[in-house]
Every structure is written in C-alpha cells, then in structure tokens.
Design brief:
homodimer; 377 residues; alpha/beta; eight-stranded parallel sheet; 15 helices; 19% strand
Chain lengths: 377, 377
Amino acid sequence: MSNSFSFRVLASDGAARLGEIAMPRGTIRTPAFMPVGTQATVKGMYPDQVRATGADIVLANTYHLMLRPGAERIANLGGLHRFMNWERPILTDSGGFQVMSLANLRKVDERGVHFRSHIDGSAYDLTPERAIEIQGLLGSDIQMQLDECVRLPAPRAEIERAMHLSLRWAERCKTAFEANPRGQALFGIVQGGDDPDLRIASAQALVEIGFPGYAVGGLAVGEPQEVMLRMIETVAPVLPHERPRYLMGVGTPDDILEAASRGIDMFDCVMPTRNGRHGLAFTRFGPINLKNARHADDPRPLDEASDCPAARDYSRAYLHHLVKANEMLASMLLTAVNLSYYQTLTAGIRDAIARGRLADFRAETREGWAAGDIPPL
Amino acid sequence: MSNSFSFRVLASDGAARLGEIAMPRGTIRTPAFMPVGTQATVKGMYPDQVRATGADIVLANTYHLMLRPGAERIANLGGLHRFMNWERPILTDSGGFQVMSLANLRKVDERGVHFRSHIDGSAYDLTPERAIEIQGLLGSDIQMQLDECVRLPAPRAEIERAMHLSLRWAERCKTAFEANPRGQALFGIVQGGDDPDLRIASAQALVEIGFPGYAVGGLAVGEPQEVMLRMIETVAPVLPHERPRYLMGVGTPDDILEAASRGIDMFDCVMPTRNGRHGLAFTRFGPINLKNARHADDPRPLDEASDCPAARDYSRAYLHHLVKANEMLASMLLTAVNLSYYQTLTAGIRDAIARGRLADFRAETREGWAAGDIPPL
C-alpha cells in the first residue's frame, strides 16, 4: 500500500499534531496546506513561486487532467512532475468528486462513474481500477481512492449507500495499487456525511482494509462549520495515531485552524487561489476586499511585515487599480499573497504545536482577524 | 526642453546607430525596445521580470491612466514609478493616439481633443497643456507632445491638416513643459502620413522648434512595411544626428531589424505582450503558434539555448496544454518569452552595430526566421 512513504508525529498539543511525511521527492511538514493546481498549474503562479510561499506539496485534479491533456500523454512526456515543472511531491485526487460537480450525464453504478466530458462531451468510464491507473500514469506521489461524495443535506439512506460503495471501491483501489504501485502511497477516504455512526463505521472499515493515510471526504459541501468540526472530532479518534489525516477541500483560515486543532494533518482548498483572482486578500488582519473603493488612495501595502513580496512591495491603491482594471497582475499578486498567508498560518500552527502553545496561537490569530484591517490614517 | 537627459551615439553602422540615453533613473541602451505597460502594468509580468528580460525603460499610456486611476491620484501616491513598482525610466505617450482608437464621441479642434471615456462615458478635454500636465503628474521621464495621428490611407489634405495641427500643438506642449518641467525630456512627433514632402516639412518644423528627441508617429497604422521604411529613410536624414529617434508603435521583429538599420533608436509595441496572450511565441526560429496541435506531444522547450527560463524550462506540450486550457500561466510564460526575444533581438542589433557587422546580423537573423521552427524528431 505504500512504496516509500513514512509519517512521524513529532509533537502533539491536545489533539493537534506536528508531523512530517517523508517521500523520495521531499518532506511534507504537517499540518500542511496543499495549493491546488487543477490543470497542472497553480493558477497565476510560477512553480518556483509556489515553492517560495512555503508549499511542500501541491494537488492536481485527475478529472481535469484525464480529459485534457490526457493521462497517457502526460506519462509519455515523463509524468506530471516534469510536465508542470514541479519536482516536489504531488497529491492527486481520484476524479470522483469533480465528476459529480462538473461532468455531464454522470451515472454511478457498482462498476464506477460514467460521464461525459464538460469540454467536448466525449464519454468516459472512471472505475476504481482506472482511477488508480490514471494516477499511476500521472505519477503522483500520494494517490486517492475513488469514492462517491454526497452533497449535504442528504437522506441517511443515500449517505449510507454511498459510504458502503466507497468502501468497496477502497478495496478495489488498494488491490489495483498493490498490483502495480506507481505512487508512494494510496489514501482511503472516510465518508458518511453528517452522520456520526456512519462516519465511525466508514473509518473503522477503512482502517480494517489498511492505508498509509486517511482522508476525510464529503465535508465542506454545504454543512455548517460546527457540523464539519464535530465530524472531525468523531472520526479522528478512530484513525490510527501514526497515519496522516487529510481533510479534503477545506477551507477558510479559520477552518484550518480549528481542524488542525482537532488532529487534521493535511489540507487543500481553492479558496486562496480562487479568491485571489476575485480581488480578495487573506491576511493576518482578516480578509481584505481590494475591490472596495476605500483602497483607491491608500499608499500602504497589504502587510508590510509580510515576507511575501506581493504583500509588501505594492500599495493597496495599486492593487485596487489592478483589480478594477481587470489586470492579470491583480490575480497574480493576490494569489501569491493568499498562498503565502495560508503557508504562514500552517507554519504558525506547526510552531505553536511544537511549543505546546496552540491555544494561545489560536487566540492571538483570531484576535488579529477580529481586530480587522487597520484603517488608513 | 530637457531637464537631465543626454544622448550619445557610440557607434554607427550604415544609417544604424548604437547609443545611450542617460537619465537620473537609469541608462537606456539604444536601439531600445520598450515593453508596453498600458495600465501601469506590463500585462502578466512582475516588474522585476520585465527588467530581467533586459528592458531599460517601459511605456505607459496616458489615455488609460488619466481615466483610471487618474493622474492626480497617481501624483498623490508618489508618481507612476512608485505606483507600479518600476524604478527605471518610463516613457508616456500623450494620450492622443488612443483617444482616436478607443474613446467615444471624440472631436478634434484647435484647442485639443474632446471625448468620452470608454469606461464610464464621462467627458474629457485633452489639450496640449493638459497632456503635459498629466504626464507631469504621472512623473514620467520621457514625455510626448499631443499630436493627431491619421489612419492610412487618407486624403493628402487630411494628412496635411493633421500635420500642421500637430506642429502647433508641439509648440504649445513645449511652452507648457518648459514652464514647469516635471519630466526629463519632451519629444516632438513627426507626422505627415505616407507623403514624403509632408514628412520632411513636419520634421524640419519640429527641428526648428527644437526637442531633445524626435518620434516618428502615424506609421504602422495600416500601410505596407515598405511605405513605413521609405518614410523612415525620408525623415531620418532631416533629424539631428545627436538626438534619439523613436518609431512609435512598431513592430514585428522584422520591422525592428529594418527600422533600426535605417537609424531608429527606440521602439515600443504591444505585439510581444498581446501575441503572447494569444498563444504566439516569437523566437529565433520565427513565430511559433502554441495553439497548434502539433505541439501536444512535443517534449522540447521553445528554445533550449535561450536565457529566458520560460523558453527553456517548459515543454511545448505543456505550453500547448496551458494555452488550450486557457490558463493564466500560458499568457505569463509566453509574454516573458516574447519580451525576452525582443530584448535579445535589440541586444543583438546593438552588438552588431558596435562590431560593424549589422548586415551579417540581419542576414543571419532572417536566415533563422526563414529556416523556421525545428520539426519534432
């Protein structure tokens, strides 16, 4: 189930863990935030810039890459790392989640998911075996089982059906991965919606099957934050201490702070990149909307104490102008600001766990957000 | 007419000149290509990246900046250099050309041009005096007189009328600049369409008025290249040897090679940036259209001998994918490739002039373009 993959918990603070995943392409410091590089690029960022923000690993989306440019093509070109000029670890999802949200005429049966491409309408079958094959062709380091994720709220029977199907697919993915392991590790995914009993049953069954890491899927799909956190509190104790836990698709800075405090080790989310493209900056003062006219004459940078050049070397007035003028540089700078802030936040969480002061760090961080942006003089 | 501005011709080869413009913010090596930063940003490029391609100076557009964010606002923020985080020289146009091509309900009379913003319809008057005032507020180093540029082909009487109006505006601009010189130099602009006699009359009258540099305007507006080159050959001998000559809005790599050979010292053009955003790369093998499906499986970089990382570190297959997927990184990388190529070309021209081998350089460069892109193995 794992090729060359190891995880160590270096320190704990309450339920939170400081850790390290070691793989041939590099070490991942946890809790880790993984920037999303959907189509083999973190939108608006050069790969070396992504690394400079502090990212140890990026995520790429199987669904998008299987459609365009195609997994076999990327394999022939030497794999995804070479293709996108990123030498460090890559995690790929299984494609299942995005089939549900993006593809046309999708259908789920025991065999897998069947859909038509949103790009050109051509038909695809994504089985557990094919999901593993594609991720192997891409050559990603951490690969994910195919699962079925149900949007919340949903009837319990529907959540339960999808959870059991996901478990059967977990077994099939493991079998396929072990037959021809072309990544470093395959993670299982806990499903079960907002039902604690189903979550526990899913986690127990996955641990029974045995994976080098466990994801918590099907959250941040419409439910309130407190439901998400309760599910994490429910699932974490069932998962083995010595395996990393990955909360898929989460979240706001506050979500990350809270989930890490409850024992989550890995995160990915489009929020910093997507919001950056829409004029929103995440900072230690909370979110700042650069579209707002109050920035038009403000000579101050977003955060002069930041070590991110984009946050430090450009005035709010300039950023506001770029956003209003719909300039690419607005998206580039604000994406860089946001990814830097997410990495600064997870680095702060790691440091706080190491020092046993996570409660203080949470309080200080929330205080900064609550104080809000400094008004202009 | 000039504050702290000097130009030296260091070497000649035929009509071509190697030179140097010295100003407080930096030296401009000529023949020089100036990337266009229309809205106070070279689209898709960080300022330090623009510099890394070899640019000594960038151009910004008065028309766009007077509308948004406004010249007074930029002045209050410390000027255009600080605003856009570019410390080296900036040249601004007068706004006249873009009023003609972009604004609504435009009207020209003796006093100036009157128009409505293409953004919000508000009314503006752009007189010669206001054009100088705006450029002073922006704080650009090289400023341009207001002129009226006529699209070709046009009746001779129309070209002549606009040329004489531009001369009267040249005088008014000079008077306004000298009353309150807030840049390093004001350039006059030769008009006269495709009529050699009008071109000569315009150039002579401008030299009579006296400027530290002379632009040739109203070319590359629809006429064949040979007409443009004939106009340069007509005008150059009339202009003083010891003043820089700027061919506005030109052009293709071939236009630059030919015009520099005829004594032009400065160029600006949106071609490298705009074409980069549309999937076209300029290289020493000629233009390469990355949209073309033949690149889909090509592992080679655009030019492995380039010192531009964007041309060297990414495969054509990846660039093709990014273009097809409409990813920002496609525009970012291809803009960088193109600006680097334009700077490499002008650096090659400078080197060839210094060595008295411009004819050989032209032949070699054209041979490279004619040979075309190397087909995949």
